[in-house]
């Protein structure tokens, strides 16, 4: 931040003997009450060093700071507060946004670097869970943030489409399945068959043997087994794709677990060659005592491979294929140990890049405080949940703006925006209470609130007598406090993008958008924006800049910004 930089430089000139510029920068804060200043430097640390009261120090230094960049420097108790020269700062920020438009905040730090974002990754023939929804929206946002920072991204849906469960499913289908029923309601039917298998196998354990046989056949390339598996997969994918299409989400690769079936033998061989594989209880494992982790199971006694084996092969394949700088795995926290094991084994193999694998965990969706599940007796399809939200959004809009032309389209943007924002406004590790009512209000911490603010700003611009906002001047203007708060917010957008990506935390953007929207709505309530006087063009430019940043901020979260709603 430029202003911060000037302030730190000034302070450093006087404090050189006691503190580095970096120390100073880290201490500078933004006063809680804007009327007290734009930046503040607390003198507590100095007080310890200089053995003087912080208030005394603040007073002394305040006198020495030059007014080049600041309109005012004051001591406020133990703080040194500065007020920025509003005009040059405002002019610079607004011009930059208007010139760059939606590329405001773009960065080159990711230039020539590739980031893998693996997200969503539902399991074939099983319901798309609430956890998969979280992974989907968090991963999509992280991918967009990475792109904004100049990284090339590869978005991968690592489908759960391989494993012993498919042997069981084939067995169940051959015994009790019905083609028509599966075609009509694939996930529900297949899941029923799978559940029935588990139930029946308690009474008839021989079923398990049958299941194992069918998985073996599948791994050996048996035509019939493969045909059924492929059919299950295609039917499930059709269902999943409905959800992705509603959410507006795309992937670059759909290489799931089955993609690695022919790539695991090499990994197992490498583990053997490096002397890492040991036999324990007839299975092949890598011991990870040094890491305080349970052994990683690589091959079962019957020769079958496991989830971990596929993940080892996956990581190595991705490194070889994409040469990633970082690989992000957006997967629920219950798999933390699994990913620690994967990283530890890769590390043991001598793959230093293992440290660039980041498991990005998240909390649960709750309903009335309890874990929310997509199946409670019967399968609730997530698609229906989203459709319901869209429906409710349409009812809201019809009440608020019955004349709106493309109501259905807007309702979809608002409903989907509501679902996504409801998730992303929370730090990802927090559990979220799933509430349709909360996510849809136009006046709360919601997606629709931010979208509505954006639409309101767009409507001002439509009504404006002038549309060329680029040529504004601030010469005879006073920048009022409402505008100034907006300008300062707009200014920190690029910084927030970097922070959100560095911490893998899209909630930083969501919270930022709420703050910006609140400041804008205060301005809207207090200032006569369209009044014909010398400040008009500037105010319109400010409104335009707000629409740009709100729209791009929402876009980074995977949310659209309708111009009318
Ligand atoms: N399909 C898994 C599940 O639903 C998630 C896959 C996570 N990714 C991975 N590389 N293991 O639990």
Strand order of the largest sheet: 5-4-9-10
Present as ligands are: arginine
Question: How big is the Rg?
Answer: 29 Å
Summarize the main sheet. 4 strands, parallel
Strand portion = 5-15%
Number of strands: 15
Alpha-beta content class: alpha/beta
Mean pLDDT: 94
Low-confidence stretches: none
Shape: globular
Distance between the first and last residues' Cα: 35 Å
Q: Number of helical runs?
A: 21
- In helices, the fraction of residues equals 55-70%
Oligomer: single chain
Task: Summarize the structure in words.
- This protein is of the alpha/beta class and 565 residues long.
- Helix content is 55%, strand content 10%.
- It is built from 21 helices and 15 strands.
- It has helices spanning 2-15, 21-27, 44-50, 54-64, 86-100, 130-148, 164-176, 179-184, 186-203, 206-219, 223-247, 264-273, 307-322, 336-348, 382-400, 407-424, 436-440, 447-463, 481-502, 507-526, 536-557; strands at residues 39-42, 70-76, 79-84, 114-118, 152-156, 277-280, 283-286, 296-299, 326-330, 357-360, 365-367, 370-371, 375-376, 378-379, 432-433.
- The longest helix has 25 residues, at 223-247.
- The chain binds arginine.
Task: Please write out the topology.
Elements: H1 2-15, H2 21-27, E1 39-42, H3 44-50, H4 54-64, E2 70-76, E3 79-84, H5 86-100, E4 114-118, H6 130-148, E5 152-156, H7 164-176, H8 179-184, H9 186-203, H10 206-219, H11 223-247, H12 264-273, E6 277-280, E7 283-286, E8 296-299, H13 307-322, E9 326-330, H14 336-348, E10 357-360, E11 365-367, E12 370-371, E13 375-376, E14 378-379, H15 382-400, H16 407-424, E15 432-433, H17 436-440, H18 447-463, H19 481-502, H20 507-526, H21 536-557
Helix pairs in contact: 1-2, 5-19, 6-19, 7-9, 7-10, 10-11, 11-15, 12-13, 15-16, 18-20, 18-21, 19-20, 19-21, 20-21
Arginine binds at residues 118, 121, 123, 158, 160, 311, 314, 329, 331.
């Amino acid at each position: 931040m430029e202003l911060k930089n000037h302030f730190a430089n000034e302070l450093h000139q006087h404090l050189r003997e006691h503190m580095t510029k970096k120390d100073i920068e880290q201490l500078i804060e933004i006063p809680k009450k804007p009327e007290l200043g734009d930046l503040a430097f607390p003198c507590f640390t100095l007080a310890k060093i200089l053995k003087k009261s912080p208030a005394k120090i603040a007073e002394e230094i305040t006198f020495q700071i030059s007014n080049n960049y600041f309109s005012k420097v004051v001591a406020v108790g133990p703080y040194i507060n500065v007020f920025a020269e509003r005009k040059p700062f405002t002019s610079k920020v607004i011009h930059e946004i208007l010139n760059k438009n939606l590329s405001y905040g773009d960065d080159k730090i990711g230039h020539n670097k590739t980031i893998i974002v693996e997200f969503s990754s539902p399991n074939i023939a099983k319901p798309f869970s609430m956890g998969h929804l979280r992974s989907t929206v968090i991963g999509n946002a992280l991918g967009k943030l990475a792109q904004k920072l100049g990284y090339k991204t590869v978005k991968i849906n690592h489908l759960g489409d391989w494993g012993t469960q498919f042997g069981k499913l084939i067995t169940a289908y051959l015994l009790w399945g019905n083609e028509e029923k599966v075609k009509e309601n694939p996930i529900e039917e297949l899941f029923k068959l799978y559940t029935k298998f588990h139930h029946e196998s308690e009474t008839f354990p021989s079923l398990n043997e049958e299941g194992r046989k069918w998985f073996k056949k599948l791994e050996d390339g048996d035509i019939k087994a493969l045909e059924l598996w492929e059919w299950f997969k295609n039917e499930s994918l059709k269902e999943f794709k409905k959800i992705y299409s509603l959410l507006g989400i795309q992937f670059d690769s759909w290489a799931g677990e089955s993609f690695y079936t022919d790539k695991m033998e090499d990994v197992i061989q490498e583990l053997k060659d490096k002397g890492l594989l040991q036999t324990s209880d007839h299975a092949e494992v890598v011991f990870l005592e040094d890491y305080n982790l349970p052994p990683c199971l690589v091959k079962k006694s019957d020769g079958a491979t496991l989830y971990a084996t596929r993940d080892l092969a996956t990581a190595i394949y991705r490194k070889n294929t994409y040469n990633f700088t970082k690989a992000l795995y957006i997967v629920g926290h219950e798999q933390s140990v699994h990913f620690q094991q994967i990283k530890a084994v890769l590390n043991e193999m001598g793959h230093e890049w293992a440290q660039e694998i980041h498991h990005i965990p998240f909390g649960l969706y709750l309903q009335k405080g309890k874990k929310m599940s997509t199946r409670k007796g019967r399968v609730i399809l997530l698609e229906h949940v989203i459709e319901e939200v869209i429906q409710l959004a349409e009812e809201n809009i019809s009440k608020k703006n019955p004349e709106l032309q493309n109501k259905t389209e807007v309702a979809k943007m608002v409903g989907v925006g509501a679902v996504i924002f409801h998730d992303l406004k929370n730090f990802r590790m927090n559990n979220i209470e799933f509430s349709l009512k909360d996510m849809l209000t136009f006046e709360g911490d919601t997606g629709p609130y931010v979208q509505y603010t954006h639409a309101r700003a767009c409507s001002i611009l439509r009504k404006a007598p002038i549309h060329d906002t680029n040529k504004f001047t601030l010469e005879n203007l006073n920048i009022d406090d409402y505008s100034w708060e907006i300008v300062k917010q707009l200014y920190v957008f690029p910084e927030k993008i970097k922070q959100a990506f560095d911490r893998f935390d899209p909630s930083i953007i969501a919270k930022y958008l709420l703050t910006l929207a609140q400041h804008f709505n205060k301005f809207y309530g207090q200032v006569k924006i369209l009044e014909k006087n010398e400040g008009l063009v500037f105010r319109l430019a400010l409104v335009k800049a707000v629409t740009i940043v709100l729209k791009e901020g929402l876009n980074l979260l995977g949310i659209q910004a309708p111009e009318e709603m």
